[in-house]
Amino acid sequence: MRQESAYYIEQETRLIAIKIKVFLSSMKKTSEEILYKGQWLLLKKDNFVNSKNEPVAWEIVERIHNSPSFAVLAKLIPSNRYVLIKQFRHAINNYVIALPAGVSGPEVASDEDLNKCILKELLEETGYTGIIKSRSPVLKLNPAIMNSDFLLISAQIDEKDPRNINVRQRLEPAEEIETILIKQDKIKDFLLDQRAKGIDITSGVWFLVHNLS
Known about the structure:
With about 210 residues, the protein is an alpha+beta fold.
């Protein structure tokens, strides 16, 4: 019998805790309605009753397969440079400075599968082969409008590894990504310069800059 991964055990435990919390909460969900279902996302309306017995409706976005997304904070050794990307994002019709990131799929059934998926995404977007140093607990991404699990990954890249010399990205047709290697003390000024040029910045990158300094 296949052993369940730590991620899915955590998911099951968290779901039980949520059910208990919801049962005891003043705000109670009564029904839901699918408004739109696409290939990757769905839009639904969830209906609640608050503590005053008043109806409350809330529009929510979900992924069809609610697999965790992730972002990778990767550091090159020995130069101690960090890996950022400049990527075109269709939702904002602009380029954005971000961390390498991706979404795991329903085929990810174990911690080993998840780690392989994360490192594969790092390789495809940046060309670099790395190792995972740590992984955050399951976090929530924009819970005001989404029900989406998220993981922040810390990774290390050995610049002396032959695989990390003359690297090559493996991008999909919908992806336009430039890899940026930058020292920690240069990141903030770089982000401000990019913003002044009209390039958007993800909140996660800006937050991490302050955490690193």
